[in-house]
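WARN no homologs supplied; continuing
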Amino acid sequence: MSLDYTNQKFVLDTSDHPQGSVTWRSPSNLAIVKYWGKHGRQLPRNPSISLTLDTAHTTTTLHYQRREQVSSDGISLDLMFEGVPAPAFAERIRRYLESIGNIYPFLRQLHLTIHSENSFPHSSGIASSASSMSALALCLCSLERHFFDSLADEQEFLTKASYLARLASGSAARSVYPFMSAWGRHGDISGSSDEFAVPYTDALHPSFKTMRNAILIVSSGTKAVSSSAGHQLMETHPYAATRYIQAGQRMSQLLPALQHGDWDLFGQITENEALTLHALMMASNPSYLLMKPQSLQLIDAIRSFRADTGLPVYFSLDAGPNLHVLYPDEHADKIESFLEAECIPVCENGVWIADKAGEGPKEILE
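OK structure emitted
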């Protein structure tokens, strides 16, 4: 399925002088099968499936008002990130909004002021671009619905939000749905597409809808290598072709586990995917290493605890040093006692985030 959202009719009437605001809170997500490598305009080289988070989210408010005069300068934008100007982030958003001018030409008729804030450390391996760009895309779809009386159907609204989010940040496409979502064409997922994500909720076993996710903050600092640079290195990676095949195969192995509540198989694939991602980074040219000594210490502790107790507790990592510890809600007391005793003291300043499978984005109404 290929979509074309180009619409030159989305222009405000000269008599309209709208002003107002819209706010969305959108979660980050954790890829279980990892997307690593892209082509074209933010299209994935392999399918991925992710857990929608709950506590780790971005809240974005988009204020808008009619510009006195539309100039050739394009988008008129002010941006504040966590209460202070963020010029680099603002420039990225400006370029993105310019790039979707054929979809939303009315944006050039407005002055936009964006206020954005995260509930978690920025650029530390939790997907801040996923939450921030999906929140912005949802705000834009709300403007379309408000100005042009379209996107009344919820699924149509979320599909377009996912499509627009993907154009800003690939992983953001997966943040608009509850619990879990899949992005990238895969024969075992009906309606799957490279252009937008689809929900993976109906077939999901109930135990995964209440999954706990303890995010252990090893480092809150900015990553040494951005995810965008990492994706680019896949273009010449010696293992790229094999990796893309492997990702599709692991999707096929994972889906039955998600349907049947098979935590052992889920955990095996989850951990292998996390380590594969970091192995790809270490085998790139130039190579780079995002894990810290504490990351390995925590991995050893989790594996030892699992071997000793038989409890289903597993780790994952995104493109950073911080661990996501995944486990069923029914075993939370025992596993969190272990985390408090052996893992949290290893974290930077003892910081961790108690997260879980989330119900997806929420529009914040005045």
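The first strand starts at residue 19 and ends at 33.
OK
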